[in-house]
Amino acid sequence: MARFAVMASAAAAVCSGAVLPVAAAQEAAAPALTWSDCDDGFQCSTVSVPLDYDNPFGTRIDLAVIKLPVTDQAKRIGTLFVNFGGPGAGGLQRLRERAKWPWLCSGELKSRFDLVSWDPRGIAGSAAVRCFDTLAEQQAFFGDFPEMPVTPAGEAPFYDKSKELAYRCEQKAGPILRHASTANTARDMLRRAAGEEKIN
Asked: What is the annotated signal peptide range for this record (predicted)?
């Protein structure tokens, strides 16, 4: 699955204070985040964003977003956005799991910040890229995918299979692939929708 995911998304820097292109930022309103409880103290939302940020009033896609609200509102500093990278890793399930890790998300951190993550565009609940018609077809394809080459002899079969995967995705995924970039993933951090001038 990791190789499949590589085609779907590039990892964005976690600490980006992402902004829209100048022209678009002057025209496009911040998307709305409406939170609802989704178990274990988390809140979830779906937000509509431009497929192409250079055309903010064109086609839109939905992003799946999750938040662990700050535990001490009086001490709250702001929102900490977490992009787990990968590339190809969904943020909803990972935040649910890793917010429980004491060495990663300490009580002090959770008492000062709302922790927010999302499934990056092209992944899981956010306009997921589909390169196969069925799960069986996908499993068969990756079942004989060559290992990462460790010698020059292994390079040709690995890259040939990778090109085949790229072709399959191009044929089936639609326009999302052209907009699944690091820059757009950073823009999807929804700083303005969270009501923050800066994010961490």
From this structure: 1-24
